[in-house]
Design a protein that fits this description.
The complex is a heterodimer of chains A (about 190) and B (about 260). Chain A has about 190 residues and is an alpha/beta fold. Chain A has seven helices and eight strands. In chain A, the strands form two sheets. Chain A has a six-stranded mixed beta sheet, with helices on both faces. Chain A has a two-stranded antiparallel sheet with strand order 2-3. The longest helix of chain A is centred in the middle third of the chain and has 13 residues. Helices cover about 75% and strands about 0% of the residues of chain B. Chain B is built from ten helices and no strands. In chain B, α5 packs antiparallel against α10 and α6 crosses α8. Classes of the chains: A alpha/beta (about 190), B mainly alpha (about 260).
């Protein structure tokens, strides 16, 4: 398949098993394709430093996977890996949580709140692109609305959203690409 | 009778202790534990294997050749690595790390106790101490790597989420590696804590039965326990530090793994 994703917001829409999550993991090189090439700004991703690529192309996973500790610890985690300290409050607010969450134990939050911690954690690295893997699949209606509101309010970051929900694609993305059985459906 | 001050035991005395095996078989038969056959196999194997190794050790003691000691210890490392590998099958490429872990633990600990003058560089010290070091290291490495495989499987989502934030394989696996090392070391740490209260270690029992002064028996046992703690820490560290890499590619990606 051949697919070019411009900056802005793009939804990859398809039923489960259509290869959406796998495609997303190729974009930040958590996996490599059996054959073919993935390019970022025209450069084969295999020629880039994978760690640097992942800081520029962030990922919000389908299910939250916080590190042990507070919300602030989670937000600081990414920058600390390269020896940088950040103020965790700004990313937490961008993710739609208020500052009172900073000192709370991340593992004790609701799944919807944890998912926004995952978003804040990715934003703390100030990525160019944010990959979203079914970010609301495990959330109820209220939590979904809160995550979507945070995503719509983001500025200066391109979104690549994987979803099986056509109405969510419409709400969040300027463009929608339909996938079927590992191919782009026209 | 086994007389104090000697360690000469006749075959008749060994045969007499078979009475206890009869008790074990009777219990198994009476309560239908269905272990009679296994007990007989265990009795025959323990007699044959220990007798054989007894003659090997006797020959090595008689020859007084350090080269033969080294060959025997290398054989123990090989057999220990093979055994540990069987219990760490879900760790990709674990053979090299296991062999290295057992070999380094044996060489470093024996080198230290000889270098510090605790034991003389003679077969009568090197063979039994080396055997204990390699045996205990084998168990610790097997437990640690087994745990590593389980945790790498269960924690896959968490580890990949850390990689996605720009963590290296080392950074993403650090907590898992620490827990695996801990689980390999804990049994010996715990048994060292309770030694003398809950159980009497074999060396001390052997020396007391053979007629040694209790103070000497205790001192030798203390030295051996401490040597084993060092060996187990070293072999566990080497095994998990090298083996975790098998779960990752050079591009800091998790490899696809079958469940352990």
């Amino acid at each position: 398949m051949s697919l070019s994703i411009p900056s802005g917001s793009t939804a990859l829409l398809g039923p489960s098993g259509s290869g959406k999550s796998t495609l997303l993991r190729l974009l930040n090189r958590l996996a490599d394709p059996d054959d073919g090439v993935v390019r970022f700004h025209g450069t084969d991703v295999r020629e880039l430093d994978p760690l640097e690529l992942r800081r520029r192309v962030g990922l919000v996973p389908q299910l939250p996977a916080p590190v042990p500790g507070t919300v602030a610890d989670n937000v600081r985690f990414g920058p600390r890996l390269e020896g940088r300290e950040v103020d965790p409050e700004a990313p937490v607010r961008l993710a739609g949580l208020d500052a009172s969450f900073l000192d709370r134990d991340a593992s004790r939050l609701s799944v919807g709140e944890q998912q926004r911690v995952m978003l804040a954690r990715a934003l703390a690295l100030e990525p160019e692109v944010l990959l979203l893997d079914e970010p609301t699949a495990s959330l109820d209606a209220d939590a979904t609305a809160a995550v979507e509101r945070a995503l719509r309010d983001l500025e200066g970051v391109s979104l690549v959203l994987v979803t099986h929900d056509a109405s969510q694609a419409e709400r969040l993305a300027e463009r929608t690409v339909r996938l079927r059985e590992g191919r782009v459906a026209r | 009778m086994i007389a104090a001050g000697t360690i000469s035991i006749s075959l008749g005395e060994v045969a007499a202790s078979l009475a206890l095996i009869a008790v074990a078989i009777a219990v198994s038969f009476w309560r239908r534990a269905e272990l009679e056959q296994d007990i007989v196999v265990a009795v025959v194997r323990s007699f044959v294997q220990l007798t054989a190794v007894g003659y090997v050790i006797q020959a090595i003691f008689d020859s007084d050749s350090l080269l033969l000691v080294a060959a025997l210890l290398a054989g123990m490392v090989g057999f220990g690595a093979w055994t540990a590998r069987g219990r760490a099958r879900a760790v990709p490429g674990a053979t090299g790390p296991i062999v290295l872990a057992l070999a380094v633990a044996a060489v470093v600990t024996l080198g230290l106790v000889i270098g510090l003058g605790v034991f003389k560089a003679e077969p009568r010290y090197l063979v039994p101490v080396g055997g204990m070091v390699i045996g205990n290291s084998m168990t610790a490495v097997a437990v640690a790597l087994n745990r590593l495989a389980d945790e790498m499987h269960e924690g896959r989502r968490q580890i990949e989420a850390m990689l996605a934030l720009g963590a290296t394989s080392f950074q993403a696996a650090r907590a898992t590696v620490a827990r695996s090392l801990r689980s390999g070391m804990i049994p010996l740490v715990d048994s060292t804590k309770t030694t003398g209260i809950v159980f009497f270690p074999g060396t001390m029992v052997g020396m007391l039965v053979a007629g040694a002064e209790p103070v000497d028996a205790v001192r030798l046992q203390v030295i051996l326990l401490w040597v084993l703690l060092g060996a187990v820490a070293l072999s566990g560290l080497i095994a998990v530090s090298l083996a975790y890499r098998g779960f990752f590619t050079d591009a800091h990606q998790l490899r696809e793994q079958p469940p352990p």
